[in-house]
Amino acid sequence: MTLGLRATHERVSNGYEAFFDGSPSVISAALGNPLGGGPNLIFRPTDGRIRGEGTFNSMVGRGVLAYTFNENVNGYANISRGRRPNVIQVTADGPEELNAEIVWSYELGLKGLYRRLSYDFAAYYYDYTNFQVTIIENQGGTLQALTRDAGNASALGFETSFRYAFTRNISLFGNYGFIDAQINETDRDGNEQELGGNRFRLTPRHSFSIGVLADLPLGNGGIFFRPSFDL
Description:
10-stranded antiparallel beta sheet; 65% strand; mainly beta; Maltoporin, Chain A; 14 strands
């Protein structure tokens, strides 16, 4: 059994400042005002520096229970609490604070070796609160990429991989993964969430790869090949 705990204390200070010096150019005058940038093309000038500050404490950790069935097979169970820090976001409209993103993760796994075949299986579930996303918003006529709280989200997945050794130097490997990761349709009170149903970015539902590992001796050194196919 393995237990771990980590405490953090954070002091955050962010600032935003945009200058305007002189007369606006023709492009700035034509596009800056309609887009909200005023005399600037994109960023609205500020009256000095706008600051946002915050102090935060957190506690995260994990517990792992591992069991060796025999010299070739072992399994494990894992539960952990993770955190993405609070966001102090500063724009020309002033500072705002977002709650920390919290994730509880649960995982079961099995790893083994059978003659020349090594393999592993893992199933997992992630439960997010205050899931942080980046959204393009119109702020005073200016399009800005801002961090927003999307509410509750979850991910359910399964992964498996193998490696088969034909010889000491040549082996075949492959893996497959499935993950259903999206923002929940409703929050914990049953209320509909604005971004509910949207899937996580860069998270395909299915992924697959297969390839060959070849390490061949050559003189005092060697040469290796790693051809593979990913889907």
